């Protein structure tokens, strides 16, 4: 429950907060804008803008892409959204940030500022700052009646500046993500006024009195993996980029269910006693912040040497650490494959034998679908069988505890145990394991292409699954009907590839897949002329 109070009380509280923050030494996380090219107006900076998806749409996906926001075609987003490259997206920390943009270098530009929200990642920037806007947002910069003319310009120069977000009538909303359960809790944070972006979320269980830091899963989704059943109701504490905090007391009820919204409630303190209680509660939050602090930053094990070592280890075993998450006998938190986008990872050929991999394994999405054998021995833990088990990378591990860290599904972790000792091994928490890269084997399956929701004649996105032997896909090309020409697609995220175009694409489409070894496979006319979004199209080809 969020707290509101009268101006006098708020002023007193603000003064107390200020003093406490000075004592704490709190400061905002710096924004990394290196060697900025300033425009003539020092409040504005130079950038490039493109657009994608439908001309008057919200981008390719109303569910917010790499930030995870829902229904971005509806208020308060209202389709005024943008993908941002890394200085704007900030590894997900920039999700929800608001910017004013304007253009003046095209005859169709109005010069009027329009506000957009970062809801997705731009993986292929063409400038230091690159806004890949929805068709709606791009057209909004035009003079009346010239929206289409401006969109036809393609890449344009714009100016931008950071502004506070403003969501009149909206409270901070928490969406409990699909796959959450008593030992795994994931929540999307939306509609934060002011800074807009969230840099830390903490959870307090019922009657615990202590805050537990959650980990950023991806975008604006935060997760908590627990070694015990979490006790609801939960309070959630949000910290934004400026260092300000907001506490929603018991916002997640005892009977919470996944895939559900819970809106924070503003409590208006009326009597002096209520005002005093509100202030004490606010101060208690700050004291708790000083006592418990924030979680450690993730360890960065992404050196090129580490990646080369991994690629050269096909016949030998390397040491790693393993943890597990989600349900004890589940496929992780989400049967739809997390940051790789794979569908139904609890079913064949995944069979819940899945893992999050840190950067040397995930490789910015290029590691999606890679297969590894893992094992642990009695030397590591008496419950270990020593038998090798094969797992597939289906998600990103953002908080590694070692150079190579497999954050396994409960099923995969337990599979390394001796018969009947699965739960005992899972109770060990973090264990030492060995691993090696192996070819993937999907008997009876050909390469599958899933056309993603939001695809349309000007925007085509496809998930590639079940690449035998290779496992990982490093390039995907598309050939339109009767064109005789291959057009490279761009990796959108995970194993999802996309093609944005200024004109309608002509189906049927052929797709050419390149595996990590450099081998190619062509699926001729695999996407038919009457293709539909959110549909699987199975090819007749497979890597041998």
Give a structural overview.
The chain starts with a strand and ends in a 6-residue tail after the last strand. It folds into four domains: 2-27 and 168-292, Sandwich (Immunoglobulin-like), CATH 2.60.40; 45-163, Barwin-like endoglucanases, CATH 2.40.40.10; 304-438, Beta Barrel (Barwin-like endoglucanases), CATH 2.40.40; 448-538, Expansin, cellulose-binding-like domain (Immunoglobulin-like, Sandwich), CATH 2.60.40.760. A hairpin with a 7-residue loop joins strand 10 and strand 11 (212-213). The strands form seven sheets. Strands 2-6-3-5-4-7 form a six-stranded mixed β-barrel. The protein is built from nine helices and 32 strands. Mean pLDDT is 79; it is low at 1-40 and 266-314. With 544 residues, it is α+β, with helices and mostly antiparallel strands. Residues 64-170, 337-445 form the Expansin-like EG45 domain. Residues 183-264, 458-539 form the Expansin-like CBD domain.
Search tags:
alpha+beta, Immunoglobulin-like, Barwin-like endoglucanases, 4 domains
Query: Which CATH architecture of the largest domain would you pick?
Result: Sandwich
User: Which homologous superfamily in CATH is the superfamily of the largest domain?
Assistant: Expansin, cellulose-binding-like domain
Number of helices: 9
Helix content: 10-25%
**Structural class determined from secondary elements:** alpha+beta
What can be said about the biggest beta sheet? 6 strands, mixed, barrel
How far apart the termini lie comes to: 57 Å
Averaged pLDDT: 79
Shape: globular
Care to count the β-strands? 32
CATH fold naming of the largest domain: Immunoglobulin-like
Question: Which band does the percent of strand residues land in?
Answer: 25-35%
Oligomeric grouping of the chains: single chain
């Amino acid at each position: 429950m969020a707290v509101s109070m009268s101006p006098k009380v708020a002023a007193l509280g603000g003064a107390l907060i200020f003093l406490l923050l000075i004592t704490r030494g709190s400061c905002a996380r710096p924004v990394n804008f290196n060697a900025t090219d300033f425009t003539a107006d020092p409040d504005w900076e130079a950038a490039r803008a493109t657009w994608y998806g439908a001309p008057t749409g919200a981008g390719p996906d109303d569910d917010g892409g790499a930030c995870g926001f829902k229904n971005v075609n509806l208020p308060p987003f209202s389709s005024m959204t943008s993908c941002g490259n890394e200085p704007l997206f900030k590894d997900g920390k920039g999700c929800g940030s608001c910017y004013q943009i304007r253009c003046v270098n095209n005859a169709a530009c109005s010069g009027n500022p329009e506000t957009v929200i970062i809801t997705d990642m731009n993986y292929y920037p063409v400038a230091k700052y690159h806004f890949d806007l929805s068709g709606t947002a791009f057209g909004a910069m035009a003079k009346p009646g010239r929206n289409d003319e401006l969109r036809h310009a393609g890449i344009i120069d714009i100016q931008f500046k950071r502004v506070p977000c403003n969501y009149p009538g909206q409270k901070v909303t928490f969406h409990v993500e699909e796959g959450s359960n008593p030992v795994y809790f994931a929540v999307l944070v939306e509609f934060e006024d002011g800074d807009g972006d969230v840099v830390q979320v903490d959870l307090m269980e019922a009657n615990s009195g202590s805050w537990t830091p959650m980990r950023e899963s991806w975008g604006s989704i935060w997760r908590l993996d627990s070694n015990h059943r979490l006790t609801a109701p939960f309070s959630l504490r949000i910290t934004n980029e400026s260092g300000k905090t907001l506490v929603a007391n018991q916002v997640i009820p005892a009977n919470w269910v996944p895939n559900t919204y819970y809106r924070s409630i503003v409590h208006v303190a009326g009597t002096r006693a209520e005002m005093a209680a509100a202030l004490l509660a606010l101060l208690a939050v700050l004291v708790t912040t000083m006592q418990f602090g924030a979680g450690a930053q993730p360890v960065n094990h992404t050196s090129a040497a580490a990646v080369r070592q991994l690629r050269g280890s096909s016949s030998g075993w390397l040491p790693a650490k393993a943890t597990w998450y989600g349900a004890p006998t589940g496929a992780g938190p989400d049967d739809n494959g997390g940051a790789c986008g794979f569908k139904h990872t609890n079913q064949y050929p995944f069979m819940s034998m899945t893992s999050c991999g840190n950067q040397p394994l995930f490789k910015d999405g290029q590691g999606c679908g890679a297969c590894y054998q893992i094992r642990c021995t009695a030397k590591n833990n008496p419950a270990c069988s020593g038998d090798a088990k094969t797992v597939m990378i289906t998600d990103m591990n953002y908080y590694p505890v070692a150079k190579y860290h497999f954050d396994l599904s409960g099923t995969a972790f337990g599979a390394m145990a001796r018969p009947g000792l699965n739960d005992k091994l899972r109770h060990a928490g973090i264990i030492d394991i060995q691993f090696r890269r192996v070819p993937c084997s999907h008997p009876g399956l050909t390469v599958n292409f899933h056309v993603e929701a939001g695809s349309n004649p000007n925007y085509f996105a496809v998930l590639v699954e079940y690449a035998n032997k290779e496992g990982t896909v490093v390039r995907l090309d598309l050939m339109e009907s009767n064109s005789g020409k291959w057009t490279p697609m761009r990796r959108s995220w995970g194993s999802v590839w996309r093609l944005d175009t200024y004109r309608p694409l002509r189906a049927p489409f052929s797709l050419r897949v390149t595996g990590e070894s450099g081998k190619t496979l062509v699926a001729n006319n695999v996407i038919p002329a009457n293709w539909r979004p959110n549909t699987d199209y199975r090819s007749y080809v497979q890597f041998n």
